[in-house]
Design a protein that fits this description.
Blueprint (H helix, E strand, L loop, with lengths): L5 E7 L2 E7 L5 H12 L6 E2 L2 E3 L3 E4 L29 E4 L12 E4 L11 E8 L1 H4 L17 E2 L1 E6 L1
Antiparallel strand pairs: 1-2, 1-10, 2-8, 3-9, 4-5, 5-7, 6-7, 6-8
Catalytic activity: [protein]-peptidylproline (omega=180) = [protein]-peptidylproline (omega=0)
InterPro entries: Cyclophilin-like_dom_sf, Cyclophilin-type_PPIase, Cyclophilin-type_PPIase_CS, Cyclophilin-type_PPIase_dom, Cyclophilin_A-like
Keywords: Isomerase, Rotamase
Length: 158
């Protein structure tokens, strides 16, 4: 089955979110999210960094934003033909463009300053109202005390 016919289904405490992956934009990142979801990697992981009007970041089991999976980091797949807008899923990374691993973020709003600098890997197609209810962090860095978690992330077919 091709990556294009698969969706990620993310169970949050407020409801189910469906994410359509974009292997046409980022084949390596799309495959990585599928692989990790199939392994149960994202289950019970926190949204450790959540900034009002910007994004919710998760995908680090430690909740520190400093770790990822045991898989090697990915080469950058910067998105040039799409723009970061509400509901887009991007791959988080350090200052090193080739450091994306397991962490991702979901946009609450448009953020065109990320265009061409980060990888778009998918888009929320259902349940954005549940993403909007993720607990926000404090301060400019958006670190969340007692963060909301991904209860379960699974792969489903369209």
């Amino acid at each position: 089955m091709s990556t294009e016919s698969k969706l990620l289904q993310m169970e949050l405490k407020h409801g189910i979110v469906k994410i359509k992956l974009r292997p046409d934009l980022a084949p390596l990142a799309a495959e990585r999210l599928l692989t990790l979801a199939e392994q149960g990697f994202y289950d019970n992981t926190p949204f450790h960094r959540v900034i009002e009007g910007f994004m919710a970041q998760g995908g680090d089991p430690s909740g520190t934003g400093m770790q990822g999976s045991d898989l090697p980091d990915l080469k950058a797949e910067f998105t040039k033909d799409e723009s970061f807008h509400r509901g887009m899923i991007g791959m988080a990374r350090t200052m090193d463009p080739d450091s994306a691993n397991s962490q991702f973020f979901i946009m609450f709003d448009d953020a065109h300053h990320l265009d061409g600098q980060y990888t778009i890997v998918g888009q929320v197609i259902e349940g954005m109202e549940f993403v909007d209810q993720i607990k926000r962090g404090a301060g400019a860095n958006g670190i969340v005390n007692h963060p909301d978690q991904i209860i379960k992330m699974s792969v489903v077919t369209e």
